[in-house]
UniProtKB/TrEMBL annotation:
Protein name: UDP-N-acetylglucosamine--dolichyl-phosphate N-acetylglucosaminephosphotransferase
One GO cellular component term: endoplasmic reticulum membrane
EC number(s) given by UniProt: 2.7.8.15
Pathway: Protein modification; protein glycosylation
Compartments reported by the entry: Endoplasmic reticulum membrane
Naturally occurring in which organism (per UniProt): Coptis chinensis
Amino acid sequence: MNRKLYLKKMATRRKRVSREITDPTGVVTDPIQQEPPIVPSKLPQILSVSGLFFTGFFYLIFFHYQIEQKLKRSILINSLLSFVGFFVTLLLIPVATKYLLRRNLFGYDINKKGTPQGSIKVPESLGIVIGIVFLVLAILFQCFNFISDSNWLVEYNAALASICFMILLGFVDDVLDIPWRVKLVLPAIATLPLLMAYTGHNDHHHTKTFHSICWFKNIGFSVFLSAIVCNVHYAGMKTMTASPRRIYKLYMWLLAIFCTNSINIHAGLNGLEAGQTAVIASAILIHNIMQIGSSTDPEQKQAHAFSIYLVQPLLTTTLALLCFNWYPSSVFVGDTYTYFAGMAMAVVGILGHYSETLLIFFLPQVLNFLASCPQLFGFIHCPRHRLPRYDPQTGLLTGTDDGTLVNIFLRLFGRCSEKSLCIRLLAFQALCCAFCFILRYILTGWYK
């Protein structure tokens, strides 16, 4: 009888101990009370903002511009699939978090260190869910739009292969924590399927785009390419043939590497990675519709429609992720998402033939990269997390000397909360996109 009571007490003690864990500050807590349920708490706000955007977007398609019925039908089918992807993503993220936590793929919010929220396990690598839903939607869409002998089908599948490759490499990075030098090489490999399948469809485009690159010479890659052009042209190197097609492929390769890593570098705040992707994707959609509505070239229209087919599911799945990732974040996107989003936007810019416009959309990322160069290339000490300092007493962030746009904004405009800082950075992203539209309007007739 005594043995039975002893075993019962031990079983009760084991259950109680198994429910207790120690957080990073050394305090014993109950995980059931510590970890809140994963719910899309920002869903009403995201639906309101996205509803306003898509209302204007569909107005441009169906009322403002005269677009062929067949093209309208394809865009509408893609939109319906994308909206389905939004709700599927909302359902899958809470399910995926359970498996990620079970495999210890979680992190702590450094910008809330010293507060109760800073000791909560936040599931990481939720970008794997977004990437999978995106790929399924993009593959399903082929059944409605492309035929077996379509000239665009090869490039479409090559684009999906590059994106899929980057999702895989991003998830490997989340699990194995790959060094920075290796991270720079990963997009270079993932871009190869796209570059091998790229045909351009129009040789005149390469020449025109190639010469227009000089106009954007203040942007890093363009300076490099302009130097190549000048050396080849003026030095009279007859042994080296630098045709516009080859130089443009080199430009595309460098662009893909930059876009993929730039989202990953410009990060560190709740909602910043997904937020900047949503802003840029929205600008890309508007740009594509404006080009389709104003163009008379069927090939150019198809190129921009191709871009829409990939950006719509990217935007809707990203908005679903923002329902969980906006401040205060209940999930982290991980390197899987940043690599995936960067590669997806690089792909549409390349195949849509507006890579120079895409670079201006990425102007905050370009500035962030230039400010980060001394640390990224080892000239200045680079800490693991180049984040601002958090004051748990006031809840405000203070900028450090690290070369990131996040810290630069804090040094210029003073201390503020994490949510306010993220909103300022996204507003700056939107202003840069608006600047790009104004610039293209001013240069209409001279540039493209």
